[in-house]
Amino acid sequence: MKQETSLLPNWRSNMYLFLSGQFFSGVTSMVVQYAIIWYLTKQTGSATILSFATLLGMLPMVLLSPLIGPFVDRTNKKILLIVPDIVAAVVAIILATVGIISSDFPLWLIFVSLLVRSIAQTFQMPTIQSIVPTMVPESEITKINGQLGMVQSANMIIAPALGALLYSIVPISYLILLDVLGAIVGVTIIIFVKIPEHLIFDEKIRIFEDVKFGLDKLRSNKGLWRITIMGSVFTLLFMPAGSMYPLMTISYFHGTVAQAGIIEVVFSVGMLAGGTIIGLFGNWKDRMKPILWSIFVMAAAFIPSGFLPGNFKGFIWFAILNAIAGMSVPFFNTLLMAMIQQSYPPEILGRVLGILNSLMSISGPVGLIFAGPLADKIGVNMLFVIAGIGALLCGAYILFTPLARNFDRDLQKKLSEE
């Protein structure tokens, strides 16, 4: 599991080249993603359509992640990063061409494009997660994960603002082609990144045996297993609110697309601040403590959001609370990922991450099924109260479950003994 800096010459410049590629391809992809969601919001104004679009974005992660894990462990990592970008670019060209010819998009084609984009991401996410510990010294894993989180947060800051600007001045049919530019830049950079590979490419892939192997490895780590289950429960309770951010701004606060973009930017600025703290000061002895704090901070931000007045003053407070919530997000995601990467050897990490990503996401579609009807029945604002209560309950479970609460201390002890 351990890696030595001497085995990774120029690892820092190599990693920063990789992060720059993730930034360029990520920001263009997200601009297009926001444009499509805003287009759906403005054209339909339907909570059900919005939740269905989000559902399509999540299903591949749930259904395909366990099956993709074995390929991540046994396939050239560059291929797994490059091919999905090319596929997403081809889909963008098809969608843009239809929009230019007919001056409108059929809903079914938008849904297909969202599904394909999500499948591409489902291949890339565990690949990125599994190669990070092979590219950096073990002592730097937490900080580098924080810096990767900073890149993703920077994308989420720039993309909504740039997307709102371009959405207002560029026809969406042409805006979608930005995905092609991002793919070209991202693929070009990845070609020059050095990614260590493990020599198990010739092993035969046995899908069901490999899925069972990954599940058994995850379940045998009892503390991590309990944290994973709580992550799944929180996803179930948060997803209805998470899919309704544009509708919350436009319908509840009577805002505009630009204001919806502002909320996304504010949330992402908070995430960038949290990621920066981890990237600079990430070597905590017990990483479960900041994770627990982040969960309770998230609850403290979401619950009041549901009781704000539906006016401009309420919108301002919503923005402030979302900045606080955004700051807490990287602590859970980034620190947990660093602990997982240190818990398993790189050659089996893809299979474990495939199972873990699926379990963390599996309850999301269930929450989304109820998102539209719930928003129509109790109000979109009350979904944020449900999300906050969910965070509170999940945090309490981890706090009062020793195997989960002491997970990192036990892991650090095991690593020091090795």
Describe this structure in words.
The protein has one domain: MFS general substrate transporter like domains (Growth Hormone, Chain: A). Helix content is 83%, strand content 0%. α1 runs parallel beside α5 and α3 runs antiparallel to α7. The termini are close together. With 418 residues, it is mainly alpha-helical. It has 18 helices and no strands.
Mean pLDDT: 83
Please tell me the CATH architecture by its name: Up-down Bundle
Which structural class fits the helix and strand makeup? mainly alpha
| Residue share in β-strands | under 5%
How many strands appear in the DSSP assignment? 0
Give me the strand/helix succession.
HHHHHHHHHHHHHHHHHH
Number of domains: 1
Share in helix: over 70%
DSSP helical segment count: 18
Q: Over the alpha carbons, how many angstroms does the gyration radius reach?
A: 21 Å
Please write the CATH class name.
Mainly Alpha
